[in-house]
Amino acid sequence: MIASTGLPTVVLPVHDAIDCLRGCLASIDAHSPEARVVVVDDASADPAVRPLLVDWCAASPGRELVPLDHNLGFVGAANLGAERAGGDDIVLLNSDTLVTPGWLQALARCLASDPAIGSATPWSNNGEIVSIPVFCQANPVPADPARVAAAIAAAGEPVYPKLPTAVGFCMAISRRAIDRLGLFDADTFGRGYGEENDFSLRVTAAGMRNVLCDDAYVAHVGGQSFGAVGLAPGEDSMRRLLGKHPGYLDLVTAWIAADPLAGRRAEVVAALG
């Protein structure tokens, strides 16, 4: 197991989507070359994926490849990567994302700021309730994600507002929460979708908080990572989630209607100019 860096360990589950994967890896190279990264190749069907990951992980002693010959699904791959993180906080990162300057340090500061924080999610163009500039919309990937990150950093001190749920494209999880709650519920959500919402509601039930890391930004293409194995949100995943948490839809609907991030989002949009 590779040594801790003092920053959260990045857990990167991978299944195909090689073009997005190349962009994600390049963004980590550019903005977080020091990061400890556990890459779980969940039996990618594309024969070009494994050699790409072998070479990328070999380029830094802080990178570990966990190659799987049988597909576990997103939740199983994420849990396996989290186990490899040892005692670190983790950031579960989708492979169709683009990280930006300072993202990992901002998430680390957020998790460290309050022992009651169980999860933290950054702003994104395509992050549902943390989408910017347009709320709850899949905004296009910006031409210059680093410029958006700089505007967010310039929009005032972070306040880490509370969220009803983390969003799984980039989800930082404190080791405190993992130690207290365990990992994702693979039995219920094995192939993926709903696991981050379930975890977030367990965070809340334990008296901890899910927050927006409002001085970090990660761009998200969306619908690419694990898309080849048929993972998409739908009635089945929602039924599983509501089976465990019947009040979930009412909670999120009320939060969206209130839109408590409106003021903070307006500050960022103004900083973008």
From TrEMBL:
An example molecular function term from Gene Ontology annotations: glycosyltransferase activity
Start and end residues of each Glycosyltransferase 2-like domain: 9-117
Keywords associated with the record: Glycosyltransferase, Transferase
Family: Belongs to the glycosyltransferase 2 family.
Stated name of the protein: Glycosyltransferase
Species assigned in the record: Marinihelvus fidelis
